[in-house]
Each structure stands twice: as C-alpha cells, then as structure tokens.
Amino acid sequence: MSEPVHIAAIDAGSNAVRLSVARAYSALDIEPLHTERYPLRLGEGVFVRPRFSEEITKKAAKAFQHFREVLDEFGVTRYRAVATSATREARNRKAFVRRIKWKSGIRLEVINATEESRLGREAVLAAMGPEAPLRCIVDLGGGSLEVSILREHAIEQAAQLPVGTVRLMTMLDLRGVIHPAETEQVRRYVRALLESKLTPRPNLGESLAVALGGNAETLANVAPGPRQHGLQTVELSLLRERLPDILRRDVRERMKSYAVRRDRADVMGVAAITLLTLGRYLNVRTFAIPAVGVREGLLQEIAREAFSRTEPHRYNAAARQLLVGTRSFARRLGYEQQHAEHVRELSIQLFDQLQAVHHMQAHSRVLLEASALLHDTGHMISHRGHHKHGEYLALNGDIPGLEGRDRAVVAALVRYHNRKSEPGGHHPAYSALEGGCGQTHRQKACRDSKNCRGARPLASAAGDEDSRFVSERRGGIASARAGRCRGGSERCQSQRGAV
What we know:
The chain is of the alpha+beta class. It has three domains: 5-112, ATPase, nucleotide binding domain (Nucleotidyltransferase, domain 5, 2-Layer Sandwich), CATH 3.30.420; 114-295, 2-Layer Sandwich (Nucleotidyltransferase, domain 5), CATH 3.30.420; 313-498, Hypothetical protein af1432 (Orthogonal Bundle), CATH 1.10.3210. The chain has 21 helices and 15 strands. It has helices at residues 43-46, 54-73, 85-89, 93-104, 113-128, 165-172, 180-197, 214-222, 236-248, 251-258, 262-265, 268-282, 294-307, 317-332, 337-353, 355-358, 362-374, 386-396, 404-415, 428-431, 438-462, and strands spanning 5-12, 17-24, 30-38, 78-83, 108-110, 134-140, 145-151, 154-161, 208-212, 224-228, 231-235, 286-289, 468-474, 477-485, 492-498. The strands form four sheets. A five-stranded mixed sheet has the order 3-2-1-4-5, sandwiched between helices. A hairpin with a 4-residue loop joins strand 1 (5-12) and strand 2 (17-24). Helix 7 crosses helix 12 (268-282), helix 9 (236-248) packs antiparallel against helix 12 and helix 19 crosses helix 21. The two termini are 22 Å apart. Residues 464-470 and 473-499 have low confidence and may be disordered.
C-alpha cells in the first residue's frame, strides 16, 4: 500500500497569505492537518503604485520563512505556492519572487486569472459533488472579482473584474465610515464593469450560485440565509437591510459589533456593496458558501500527482466523492487503515486481471473498493459477527455519494467478505436488491464478493507489505497467487486462493 504523503498549499492573496497542510492517503482521500493565515496585505500599496515596497517585501520574506518552518515541522514532501492578483500587477514581481526563494527556499509561482479561477472551480466541484446543479461561482478577493457562469459544470461565461475589496478601498480611500455618495460610487463602478465584461447579462433566478473567499464567509455570518445543499448561505435581502449599519460604523466599531479582525472589518463594507451589486446584476437571492478556494484546489492536484502512478484507474467525480466519503466514514469508526487499503488494492487487482471473466463495468470496481475499505468496520461493535455489524453500518451510516442500490451492494459485499455467511434472501442488504434490476444487482454483489473474499486471505498471506499477485485460468477455473519477497532474496512466499 502507498504510504500517506504530507502535502501543503500556499495562497499569497491580496489581503493575506494562507497556508494549508494536509495528509493525503490517496489521490482521493485528503485529511486536513493545519491551516494558518498570515496578515500580510500585499495589495494595499501595489494597486496605487504597481510595485512592492521594501517593507512589504521584507514582511513577505518573514512570512514565508515561517511557513518553511511549518512545512518542515509536518514533514511536507510536496507543496505548491501561488500568488494572485496583487503579485501579478507588481512590476517588481520577479525580484519579489527571487527574494522569497532566497530567504525561505519556497518557490512562489505567479498564476494568471484563468488558473486562479480554475483552481477555485475544481475545489467547489469536488466539495459539492457531481450532482449539484451549480450555475455560478463568484470569487470576491482583495484584488479582483471573478465570475464564472456554468452549464453542466462547463464554463459558459466568465469575467475577471478589477474590483477586489482591497483595491477599491485603497483606490477610493474608503477606510472607515462609508457615506451614501461613496456607496453609490462603488455601485456604479462595479455595475459598469459588469455591463462591459459580463455580457449578455445572465439571469440566474433560482439557480445555485456560490461565493468564495473570506469576504463572502464573513457576510454569511452577518446575513445568514437558509442552508442550500448543506451549505451556509448569505441572504442578499437581509444583507441589504443590514448594509446601512455596516457602512455607518468605523473599523473599530465593526470589529466589536461583528467580531471580525481589523483587516476584515475595513473591507467588509466594500465587500457588501460589491456582492449586492453583483447579486442584482445576476438576479440571484442567495449565495451558498462552500468554504473552499484556491488552496483546496491546489491540494487536490498535488494529491493526484503524488498518487497518479500507483492509482492509474481514472475516476469520475461521482466515484471520487464516494471513495472520499467512504474513507472518511471508515476513519470515524477507527478502522485499520493499512489493512483495509491493502485489501482494497488486492481486490481491484483481482477485478482488473479477471475482467475477461466477469465483464463487469467500472462502477462495479468502485463499489468493490468501497466495500473493501469497510469490510472490517463491524469490529467496532463486536468481533463476534463483525460481518453482520459491518453490513448494518454500511446500510445506515453517513457515507456521502453512496445511495440506493449501490449502498445495498456495498453492504452485501461487506457481509459476504469472509466465508461465514452466504447470500440469503433474509439478509437486509441482499433482500434490498429485490425487484426491478434486483437480479442483476444480486449477481453483481455475488461476483464482487468473490473478489473481496479472494483478496482477504491473499492479503493475510502476503502481509500488509508491498505485495502483488497474478491471476490465471486453467480448465475454466480462475485462481490467484500472492507473494512477497524478503530482503532481496529470490525466494518468495506465496499462497494460492480460489476466486
């Protein structure tokens, strides 16, 4: 089984620099370990005079030196650090990037607006799943406002507008109380750019729209709406009612009234005006807040690259969501991760090598993986009859992406993973496969259970080490042989198992 990899992502934005450290168990399973936000406002000066000052450069070098220490502390072996709007516009950005590399050893990559938007979009789609009817993604940052109109998760319209909160605050000198004339100035500026860059005008109505970034997350606490698809929302009608109270307060009063940091309090008024103007232009009433962004998109890509060779099978979005949800559920139950992953790998090796025998589709392979990950979870309840307890947990547990007959198939595989139970019509999971295409699903469960049964003793024989096996057919009978080699010796231990 592949060892977990410690990975990290750094996002040097216009309002702050953020770090996320995670442990990746596979290309699909990423466990957050640590996050930090360094209060360095790269965009405060650069949007007026397009150069980083020496003071900002020194503070940035200090921030990245600290992040280097954190990466070393967690044993991070793969990372990606990116800089966005403010650094893109700084004329001395090359010297800035060189200073960061010299002081911290971290390679900072300046990405364009298209790449920034793509990373955020990938994070949202992974968080919400393939079935979410997502129509719009908005990312309101310190330097820019990015809008993506989607149709079936593909971009239909896109615009990147220079109306980030830090940019507007510094250019228009809106550092405290915002008066009605200044409010109207911001509205007109945002509206004019929308009309020039996002045409024809989208009419989203009741469609699902999400907003990314700390500004949107703050406003969702100020004007919370009903949850959508399990996500917190910002209710624009409520935000409009509360806007005068936000604008009439100075920075210190906002900090006290809304329990926010200074570097959020000074831009939240501009953020509220911008979001309300955008909502009216798009004709939306609420924005859902998935609480993900560029860093999450980076972590997903790093994990995929780290495990691409060990996991050559291509998963679609639904399969990724199912396996991530399954691992998360199994982890909550305290499963033996190394053994479960080893059984999973051997199971899919059997599945792939015997494809010419069973002719099962790729989706069955994913269900087999899920059942292999869950096969021993019943031990949490009792060692005796753990296969029955595992069936119950698979049928009733909170496993995102596992629904309907697929859940019954996985639960049946968990019950039949050993030889203590044979399929029976009185078993809950197996009986749930009756009716309609039930016979087909029952056959699928029986065939997949043989793969899981075959993998489990082979895993025990080879141990939870680096092992492989080959399948062969003789006289219409399929069998598999697992083996491992110790200390570089040419002699290998092996065991055969019927499949």
